[in-house]
Amino acid sequence: MDLTRGFTEDSYPSGADLSEVVAATTRLIEAARPVEVPVIFTAIAYTEAEASGDAVAWLRKAPGLRALVEGSDAVAIDPRLPMRPGHDQLVVKKGASAFFGTSLAATLTGLGRDTVVVCGATTSGCVRATVVDAVQSGFPVLVPRACVGDRAEGPAEAALFDIQAKYGDVVTLEDAVGYIGSVPAPAAPDAARRSHRRGDST
Hints:
Layout: H1 5-8, H2 19-32, E1 40-44, H3 48-52, H4 57-61, E2 89-93, H5 104-110, E3 116-117, E4 120-121, H6 123-136, E5 141-144, E6 148-149, H7 153-167, E7 169-171, H8 173-182, H9 189-198
């Protein structure tokens, strides 16, 4: 979730030093590669007109986000993360939730995935909004505590308390790595079609 330079570096109005979050998320991504668990990145990015105008109501409330302009360094995925361009998907969004106004739910369904592990920034904003929308879209959610960050501790802790109470499971990084490593790869489409023709069931 939004681990772009505009959020992970404290030189930006919307950012904070999230080096530890980036490192923890990197470890989780690296655990996902051998078992072919899809890694999907998100980024908030606005056109010049959106960033400078009044069409996006959220920007009137959070003017620091106006720096997140398409094509700028602020919306680039943090270079410390092991993103694989051309392989990992990138969801560009205008609001807090990665599900709002995007094709994320359809993408996850198309990939045959039924659970979402949410990492990123900020815990009290985009992470919480995405978790709520994920569970409302039918996806159980895990949130590794070490893999989420915020600009302030109080709102972050309140959000994690709320997530654990009502929307998902807040887990340790070790538990998340263990879970990722235990996920079976989905059946290849050709194999699934052959199984269907044979009348096999799962």
